[in-house]
Specification:
Largest sheet: 6 strands, mixed
Strand order of the largest sheet: 3-2-1-4-5-11
Order of helices and strands: EEEHEHEHEEEHEHHEHEH
Helix content: 25-40%
Number of helices: 8
Shape: globular
Oligomer: single chain
Strand content: 25-35%
Radius of gyration: 19 Å
Length: 240
């Protein structure tokens, strides 16, 4: 089975091809250019280098978030279009599970964090059990200080990884219980999305069509929040 995976949930963008549980290729770029400019050229390059076409793909996998609102929409639009055109199923993988998968096999508790703007992070925790990821806590939005206090209070050594690590490195590096993942593990990857999707497909979990696959936002975007605040102020002014 050929599984094509997409991940544009963070600053990094990547596409990967998994063939019969073997990673055939992955293209990943982690810079400031917009995902809309680079995703299709990356996909075309992957197809060319792997000597495959869209007709060879059996299953699609996509990181549904949480993460960058704009990034999520770009990958989602690409996957929906391809799924519709080729009549393919789509497996949904959340971004925190995908990140944690990079550390599969370690003995420590794994905590993935992504920037949720302000001083907040999206976070969830996992542990390796029987060579699989076991989710310990559901995805939530926490203030970074609250998360660090929780880690300190629990008293358990953890591995922290994800894009938000860079933003809060000064605070995190002072914590005795925290180990920061290495650079190659500390980034979202489409190869992880593909591998997780392969197992989900075997278990018949989180499989969608192009009609019902949706991004996971967790919270409202900053633009939506600002709009609602503006409308509230207008309404309050009109009642005075």
């Amino acid at each position: 089975m050929n599984i094509l995976g997409f991940d544009t949930s963070t600053k990094a963008a990547s596409v990967a091809l998994l063939k019969d549980d073997v990673l055939v290729g992955e293209i990943l770029i982690n810079d400031k250019r917009t995902h809309s400019q680079k995703l299709m050229p990356m996909l075309e390059s992957l197809f060319k280098l792997a000597n495959v076409t869209a007709d060879d793909i059996d299953l699609l996998a996509v990181c549904i978030g949480p993460g960058s609102f704009t990034g999520l929409r770009i990958a989602m639009a690409s996957v929906k279009a391809m799924a519709h055109a080729k009549d393919l199923k789509v497996v949904a993988v959340d971004s925190l599970e995908s990140l944690a998968f990079n550390m599969l096999g370690v003995d420590k508790k794994i905590i993935a964090i992504l920037d949720a703007q302000g001083s907040k992070v999206y976070t969830a925790s996992y542990k390796t059990q029987d060579n699989e990821l076991k989710k310990l806590e559901e995805i939530e939005v926490l203030d970074i200080d609250e998360l660090l206090e929780r880690i300190d209070r629990d008293g358990e050594e953890v591995i922290l990884l994800g894009e938000a690590v860079h933003k809060y490195r000064d605070k995190i590096s002072n914590q005795a219980l925290i180990e920061i993942a290495s650079a190659d593990k500390n980034i979202s990857k489409a190869s992880s999305v593909c591998t997780i999707a392969s197992e989900k497909y075997r278990k018949n979990v989180d499989i969608h069509t192009h009609y019902d696959i949706l991004p996971m936002y967790i919270r409202k975007s900053q633009a939506e929040t600002q709009y609602e605040e503006k409308q509230k102020k207008i309404k309050e002014a009109s009642t005075k």
